[in-house]
């Protein structure tokens, strides 16, 4: 049974999956435009993919940008994410730089959650503890943009992340066949029912995996990602389109 986590006015792990809209703008103008659109479409959560930001290396400017995004979003919870090249992102930075950036974002008080690439960093449990001391919630994440490993490997990754102290567990993988999508959904259902009470985010990417972005309520995924601008991963729907499909599926589930 998943225990919900409340971030501002949003409960993650309760009811329909929450819709998170990533911001991928390269500069201040683009980012504030995306933040405004996120507020207009009433996404449940926002994610700043700071690895797209062209001034990430300037700590003062990136922290100012984070503050401005926080103000523009109002009470919409904000996830701070730097996705490194090894996990499909744009950031070519050292492990030390990665830790410095995410800790600075957490310490600023302008991020509600911080994404940590669980398998890309040594002493990750210590990093998560340091982030928790700032008051943020932590998402332990893993991404594979090439393939979907077998069910036992996926399950063991979830179990490993669960031991880290992170508040939410996230996995995104690329399917090569429909069975890969079904495997991820089945593993997620087993993990949420038998192994952890933490909210889990699971998605199969690309067109083949699009059902996993819609049907999270049926297999235990607590958050799904949708666009207001450029997609941050293959297969994302626009926010309003995704909401319509999820509402229709929820209605069908209730009726049945």
Sheet-strand content, in percent, reads: 15-25%
Low-confidence stretches: none
Shape summary: globular
- CATH fold descriptor: TIM Barrel
Order of strands across the biggest sheet?
Answer: 9-8-7-6-5-4-3-10-11
- Structural class assignment: alpha/beta
Order of helices and strands: EEEHEHEHEHEHEHEHHEEH
Termini separation comes to: 21 Å
Q: Any guess at the CATH architecture?
A: Alpha-Beta Barrel
* Structural domain count: 1
By CATH, the superfamily comes out as: Aldolase class I
Number of helices: 9
- Total beta-strand segments: 11
| CATH class descriptor name | Alpha Beta
Rg estimate, integer Å: 17 Å
Mean pLDDT: 94
State the share of residues found in helices, binned by percent. 40-55%
Largest sheet: 9 strands, parallel
Notes on the structure:
This protein is an alpha/beta fold and 256 residues long. It has a single domain (5-255), classed as Aldolase class I (TIM Barrel, Alpha-Beta Barrel), CATH 3.20.20.70. 42% of the residues lie in helices and 20% in strands. The protein has helices at 28-41, 59-73, 95-108, 124-132, 151-162, 178-195, 210-214, 216-219, 239-255, and strands at residues 5-7, 10-12, 18-23, 45-49, 78-81, 113-117, 137-144, 168-173, 200-204, 223-227, 237-238. A nine-stranded parallel β-sheet has the order 9-8-7-6-5-4-3-10-11. The radius of gyration is 17 Å and the shape is globular.
